[in-house]
Write a structure and sequence with these properties.
- By secondary structure, the protein is α+β, with helices and mostly antiparallel strands.
- The chain folds into two domains: 161 residues, 2-Layer Sandwich (D-amino Acid Aminotransferase, Chain A, domain 1); 167 residues, D-amino Acid Aminotransferase, subunit A, domain 2 (D-amino Acid Aminotransferase, Chain A, domain 2, Alpha-Beta Barrel), CATH 3.20.10.10.
- Helix content is 24%, strand content 28%.
- It has seven helices and 17 strands.
- The strands form two sheets. Strands 1, 2, 3, 4, 5, 6, 7, 8 and 17 form a nine-stranded mixed β-sheet that branches. Strands 9, 10, 11, 12, 13, 14, 15 and 16 form an eight-stranded mixed β-sheet that branches.
- It is globular and about 60 Å long.
- The two termini are 14 Å apart.
- Bound molecules: pyridoxal-5'-phosphate.
- Pyridoxal-5'-phosphate binds next to helix 5 and strand 14.
- One of its GO terms (biological process) is L-leucine biosynthetic process.
- It is an enzyme of class 2 (transferase).
- It comes from Raineya orbicola.
- Its cofactor is pyridoxal 5'-phosphate.
Length: 354
C-alpha cells in the first residue's frame, strides 16, 4: 500500500475495545488499538510501522521538548449509511501538513505515507469507528522533532505518527466570544498559518483570561493594531449580513481551515455574495450595534459549525439572533453531515471512500 517504504505491521494481541463505553466517548480520551509510527533520519523516511497504541520511548534532550518543532492535523472518518467508510477531504489535510512542515523547517511527509497510513489504520481498526449517528473516528496525524540534541537549529530526525480516537456526536453549544484586543495568538510574519503546537501554547494565557470573564473563547485580532478580525484559534470565523458572507482573508496569521474552504465553496454555489478580505472589528461592531449581523459562526473539523451566541466588544455584550434564524450555519451543518453519511451526492469529490 505504501510505495515509498515498506509498512511493517504488528497487531495487538489483546484488543481494548471491550472496555470502551461507546455511548460516552467525549472527545480525545479514548484511543483505538493501533497507531502508525514512521521515522525520518539522514534525510529520508527510514521506517514505518503500524503497532499497538502505547507509550513512546523518548530522550529528555529530544529537540521538540525544548524548541517546539511540532505540527499536527485533524480529520474524521465515519460509517456511511450503506456501510462504507468516508473520510472527509484527507488530501487537503495532507497538503496543509506539507505547508506546515515547510514553515517549521521540517521534512515533507509523502502522500502515500499520510493517506496510505490513514487507510491502513482504518482498515485495521475499523471496529473502533462508532456507529451512532453523528459520531466518528477522529484521526490525528502529527510530526515532531525527535533528535537528541540541544543546539538551536532544525532537528535532523523526526517522527510522524497517526493515531485515531472514536468520538461522540460533538455538538458545540452556542459560544460566547470575546473580541480580544490586548493579547495575541500569532503575529504578522510568524507561524499562524502553520498548524503547529506553539500557536496553541501562545493562545492559552489569553484564552484562560477570557474564560474567567465568562466567555468560551477569544476571537483573535491582528497583533499589531487589533483592528482586524482573524480567527478563534481552533476554528475559523465567518459572518453573514443579509446575503453577504464575510470571512477574513488568509495570510500568515490565519490557518487555512478545510471546513472554511468547503463552506466558502458551498456559499458561492448557494448564491451568497462571498467576501474574503480584511474584516475590521469596527464593521462587525457596527453591524452588531445596528442589529444587522444575522449570523456569526466558527468552522472546524471537531464541531463542523459552532454558532456564536454572544460577542463581547469594548466592554459590552452583544446578543446575536436566535439559532432558528441561522439559515446559513444550519444549512452548512446539515449539508456536511449528510454528505459524509452518503445521503447526498459528493459532487465536489470531497470524500475518500473505503
Ligand atoms: C485546525 C484549525 C482550524 C480549523 O481547521 P479545519 O481544517 O477546518 O479543521 C482553525 N484554526 C486553527 C488555528 C486550527 O488549528
Amino acid at each position: 500500500m505504501i510505495e515509498t517504504l515498506p509498512l511493517e505491521i504488528e497487531l495487538t494481541s489483546q484488543s481494548r475495545i471491550d472496555g470502551v463505553d461507546f455511548e460516552n466517548l467525549g472527545f480525545g480520551r479514548v484511543f483505538s488499538d493501533h497507531m502508525l509510527v514512521a521515522e525520518y533520519k539522514n534525510g529520508e523516511w527510514v521506517s514505518a510501522k503500524v503497532m499497538p497504541y502505547g507509550n513512546l520511548y523518548m530522550s529528555p534532550a529530544m529537540s521538540v521538548l525544548h524548541y517546539g518543532q511540532s505540527i499536527f492535523e485533524g480529520l474524521k472518518a465515519q460509517y456511511m449509511k450503506d456501510g462504507r467508510i468516508s473520510v472527509f477531504r484527507p488530501w487537503e489535510n495532507h497538503k496543509r501538513m506539507l505547508a506546515s512542515a515547510e514553515r517549521m523547517c521540517m521534512p515533507a511527509v509523502p502522500e502515500d505515507l499520510f493517506i496510505g497510513g490513514i487507510k491502513q489504520l482504518i482498515e485495521i481498526d475499523k471496529k473502533w469507528i462508532p456507529k451512532q449517528k453523528g459520531a466518528s473516528l477522529y484521526i490525528r496525524p502529527f510530526m515532531f522533532a525527535s533528535e537528541e540534541f540541544l543546539g538551536v537549529r532544525p532537528s535532523q530526525e523526526y517522527k510522524f505518527i497517526i493515531f485515531t480516537c472514536p468520538v461522540g456526536n460533538y455538538y458545540s453549544e452556542p459560544v460566547r466570544l470575546k473580541i480580544e484586543t490586548h493579547y495575541s495568538r500569532v503575529a504578522q510574519g510568524g507561524i499562524g498559518c502553520a498548524k503547529t503546537a506553539g500557536n496553541y501554547a501562545a493562545s492559552l494565557y489569553g484564552a484562560v483570561k477570557v474564560q474567567k470573564m465568562g466567555y468560551h473563547q477569544a476571537l483573535w485580532t491582528n497583533s499589531l493594531t487589533h483592528e482586524y478580525i482573524e480567527e478563534v484559534g481552533t476554528m475559523n470565523i465567518m459572518f453573514r449580513i443579509g446575503n453577504r458572507v464575510l470571512t477574513p482573508e488568509l495570510g500568515d496569521t490565519i490557518l487555512k481551515g478545510v471546513t472554511r474552504d468547503s463552506v466558502l465553496t458551498l456559499a458561492r454555489e448557494w448564491g451568497y455574495e462571498v467576501e474574503e478580505r480584511k474584516v475590521s472589528v469596527k464593521e462587525i461592531a457596527e453591524a452588531l450595534q445596528n442589529g444587522m449581523l444575522d449570523e456569526a459562526f466558527g468552522l472546524g473539523t471537531a464541531a463542523v459549525v459552532a454558532h456564536v451566541k454572544v460577542m463581547h466588544y469594548d466592554g459590552k455584550d452583544y446578543e446575536l439572533p436566535p439559532l432558528e434564524k441561522r439559515t446559513l450555519a444550519n444549512k452548512i451543518y446539515d449539508y456536511l453531515i449528510q454528505l459524509r453519511n452518503g445521503d447526498i451526492e459528493d459532487t465536489h469529490n470531497w470524500l475518500l471512500i473505503l
